[in-house]
């Protein structure tokens, strides 16, 4: 009798144990991970969407401060890490409310992650993106107003947090690491700026707006100083030319951004146009380029800095080509080293917020007032 | 009277004990059964093909253990013969392939349906894709035996031969390998031609051996209707004991792609918008398909030249740029 009931209990216990553990195992997919590593299921990736967005940045108002300079899988990044701390670039991206989702979002997800800091500048504030409102209207005729106000804002709020200040459009693709190489031969206290150099209308030339241009700290100081002393003003809405003319007046040099083989690094069009396009003789481009145009593969440096008119899809493709896809073991033909002046640059581990003196703050307040009156 | 409660308690304990024992055994049984069944499941997919495992590129640790001279020797010893099947209508793509990736093959031969004045090619004098493929492979076997690996492509494909060699580094060409982007169609697993097909010496040898057997591998194909040539190839190879394997990188991403980068990027923009370039495709991808001739030039720039300064890789293979070329 006792044996019967204990057998029954055993059997009952066996069933309970099996069923419990079965349900437990199906809820927790342990067995899958034991063997072959399957490719990631799509569902879990979507969860990472919101998390990854904020992983890179420390958000400080409208400024996105880079917490971690992105690294490539399996790389030796010692040189890149060193130059990241010695050539600090603050990127500002000119955009507008209508383009935040269409264009600026893709800049935020790609190349701007390689800047030390990035700020998206628009006509109106948007705390969610985030963007700063420059208090202008939208439209081509507002471009120079946006630029003037953007640079004044940077000079007022972020002057000591970077060595160089890059302006880009929301359809410009920039390889920031290669920009650091161009700038590594110079110090931020030199009055100089770089970009795709154009010829007409300015003696020393000026830099194409769409291809992006970068001002040294001293150049930025002089730009703002020019407006304070009325040497510079809103002369036209052709942003790149007007800025170039102000630079010239303030004694800021238009630099040569070409690589050591004299190949262009800043490009006003997409790679396909430069690499395969044949520009017709009547095309304006021929008369605008400060340096001789080279068509075909030598149009562009291996260490290219920028391209323009880049669609959202092309942003990601270029990010993939630049930072991911490579030919394993391939020994590149072109291997420049760091320039000699690089040794003079000090390292900055954090982007410290150096407070402005009272005098400097007072100066800026009166400047804002003057700008408002001007408009 | 005094015994009854004791007996009852004893019965309870023994029943309780049995119950617990039963539960424990049941739990163990369940775990074992699940493990065994998933082991079987995993095994079932792959035991059909002896030697089958997901063909991975070798790990860096394995390679770096070798001395440098050995690594250079190894790099030079992986010889790839490229078979590119063209027709006159493909002229623009043909030109692009000639000017771009085919320069990185140890030998690239264009097999054309008919002779074309503009470019050199081996004419196979047929427009039938399956017969073209048969003739091209027979020609490759007869003329290029010293190359250990054969890569077959159409001119709409872009291939990065260095990454192919990296994949093939630890593979013995005297074993039958048939690699690429694998597709399953009903019962047949085959490698898609548009993503590029890789055959080892042994696989090609076996194929050539069966080409003459019209019961197994006839010229007009085995079906009443025409199968695409990549499926016909798979059927013939199967007869010789050579089975298709999908090539993947160490993260399980396909390295042979029958789609273009644009197409894959667009998919990633929809599915993983925060990490598009990271997740769309492998870093050591071998092929993409469907790029325009101009885009092939852009890809050439993107693969062999464009890169961010200051990021170094200590790769264990060494590939030098080809002579007489300036776009790489």
TrEMBL record, chain A:
Residue ranges the record marks as coiled coil: none
Membrane topology: Single-pass type II membrane protein
GO CC terms of this entry: membrane
Main location: membrane
Bias (Basic and acidic residues): 349-361
Localization (cell): Membrane
Top-rank lineage group of the source organism: Eukaryota
Reactions mediated catalytically: an N-acetyl-alpha-D-galactosaminyl derivative + UDP-alpha-D-galactose = a beta-D-galactosyl-(1->3)-N-acetyl-alpha-D-galactosaminyl derivative + UDP + H(+)
Fringe-like glycosyltransferase domain residues: 99-264
Region Disordered, residue ranges: 349-375
Recorded metabolic or biological pathway in which this protein acts: Protein modification; protein glycosylation
Cofactor(s), names only, from the UniProt record: Mn(2+)
Entry's Gene Ontology BP terms: angiogenesis
Molecular functions (GO terms): glycoprotein-N-acetylgalactosamine 3-beta-galactosyltransferase activity; metal ion binding; nucleotide binding
Keywords, comma-separated and alphabetical: Disulfide bond, Glycosyltransferase, Manganese, Membrane, Metal-binding, Nucleotide-binding, Signal-anchor, Transferase, Transmembrane, Transmembrane helix
Record keyword Ribosomal protein present: no
E.C. number(s) listed in UniProt: 2.4.1.122
Function noted in UniProt: Glycosyltransferase that generates the core 1 O-glycan Gal-beta1-3GalNAc-alpha1-Ser/Thr (T antigen), which is a precursor for many extended O-glycans in glycoproteins.
Protein name in UniProt: N-acetylgalactosaminide beta-1,3-galactosyltransferase
